Amino acid sequence: MGSTSARLFARVTAAPAAALTAWLLVAFPLLLADVLTPLTGALLGIPAVAVVLVAVFRLVPALPGEGDAGRGLPWWPLALTALIAAAFAAVQLGYHSEILVIRRDPASYAQYTSWIAQHGSLPIPQQRDLIAGDHPALVYGSLAYYQVGDVIWPQFLAGAPLVYTVGHWLGGITGMLVTPPVVGALGVLTFGGLTARLVGPRWAPAGALLLAVCQTQQWISRSTYSEPVAQVLLLGALALAFDALTRRVRLGGWSRWHTLAGAAGLVFGMGLVVRVDALRDLLPVVAFAGLLLLARRGQALPLLGGLAVGLGYGAVAGYGLSRPYLEHLSASLNPLLAISAAVLVCVAAGVALLWRRGVPRGDRPSWLPAAAAVAVVLVMAGLALRPLFYTDLGHGDEATAAYIGQVQEIENLPQNPDRTYYEMSLYWVGWYVGLSTVLLATFGAALLVRRIMQHRAQQWVLPAMVLSWTVVTTLLRPAITPDHPWASRRLIVLVLPAFILFAVWFTAWLARRVNTDSVGGRAWRGRAMSATAAAVGIGVMLVPTAVTAAGVMTYRSDVGSVAATKKLCDAIPPDASVLMVDGVYGGYMQLVRGMCGVPVAGLSSAEPERDVARIIEEIEQRGRTPVLAASQPRRIIPHISPDTPVRHPFDVHTTQDPSTLMKPPSGGWIFDGDVWIAVVP
Prior knowledge:
The chain crosses the membrane at residues 43-63, 75-95, 169-191, 257-273, 279-295, 302-321, 333-355, 367-385, 426-448, 460-480, 492-511, 532-555. The protein contains 26 helices and 9 strands. It is of the alpha+beta class and 681 residues long. The protein has 4 domains: 1-96 and 178-244, no CATH class; 109-157 and 556-679, no CATH class; 249-265 and 274-360, no CATH class; 371-544. The strands form 2 sheets. The chain has a 6-stranded mixed beta sheet with strand order 2-6-5-7-9-8. A 3-stranded antiparallel beta sheet has the order 1-4-3. Helix 25 (585-596) links the parallel strand 5 and strand 6. It is globular and about 90 Å long.
């Protein structure tokens, strides 16, 4: 491959993160200003993305490879990596879910997206004046939607909904639902680019394929989860940081390398606009910037500056648009904020104390690199042995414990609802990428740490810091409901890519080591041995990964929900005010409010017959049509006259994601979605 395609490979794989960041930089202020519309998005977003992509194609250097600027490398790594990403997108588009009824996060994000795509503003008005005012029996909040005063705030951060809003603008509900497969494919492409930078361009297709086949990567890319967006941003930030550090520049002045460092920091920081736990993942970036300062590297200050801007966006996203959610997370968020502040103080103090001495030597004493490598193996061994002597208990939530008890009963497991299964976290990784990948990654990480401390792999310092920190902290405490595939969400942004990346690097190292006959007439033998080692290494990783992935290849989740939503909305008069008279409001209230566009409230009453009659009267006095909704017709019939028809417009009986605790998920469970309504004449 000539230098032209070496540059193209680097720039194509850096473009997704840069484009998403440019869009979020523009779209988020528009949402804050309540003016997010297709027109404003197009007028400001398209030029912003175009400018950033042009900058990427001008600034990002060629991939490192054979010869100067990558000359001598073939075209096939780029073509094959792109083909894998395209095939991934096609498969996930074919299997995309239709999750709109709120039970867990994807529908919450879908309803969030639908609201801002149509209204361009937050918070969501309750419209209680169109129902029954301040009647004490009415509730306006529901699952993932907080009732605060006379408005409603969605639970999560705005980053992923802002990205999926583009799909909604282009194709309505279906357009929104098919956007995650595209973003997931961009994650595969970005990971291929990171593999090309850190392992070598010829290994990029292997890394992309292993991630693409992984069950969790496929699963999260079929629904409106936030993880695909976060993955593109954080993996892309690592790639841009690699590019920024390919040249050594001193403090002061400005160059393309400073610009790339600032861009990398910004992309890192924008991860906080998507997910709160990105704050934990970014702590090593601060420490690394301190090392750059001690090394008098000019990229340090732009990296910190870009990171600060991105984190500022994230702080506003959290405390400006998702404060009830952050308050709900306060038990874990407040300690994380304290730890973050401590890291900042420690890094600043360390830089001040070591400013004259420079970066500490990692190879002094001489035994330290080997000891660090042994420590990596011991940490992984400890995580592997943890279930033998420790059982983690305590969800901190009664509802979660009750659900885990139900799953244990279904799977015929010992009843222990308080068990979190966190001690099994390394085994979760083994389910999804195979034990062979875990072992190869452990050896690869150990060897890389040794080489880094010997100053032989400096390009790995930041990736190793970020990935190893995230792996250890996540596996120690995943902090998620432990049923699968749900719990695997916590692994897919950086943990599973980290294991794949370290394992591919170690396989590449082994392939080079067995090539002992590199010159002379027997050079072909060395090349054959190297190719065999590479093929065996990739095969032993790919086969178990593919076997587990088969578990999600047999169903689509919640199919029929889009058509049922349209039927439900058509059945509700445009001048209706809807009262949901039983617990169905938890999952359907925001669907009715946001997708059907009518006021809705739920009933919480000790005397439902009296309160329903009064609320119907209040609705009629406001000149609107009362509509009662429930999960079963018997919940409606006591409140209407005998000649009022009860209809069943939302009638979905299909497959949903399963829940498993001690084995990888395979096949789906049954989903029954029912909404009955009666239009009160």
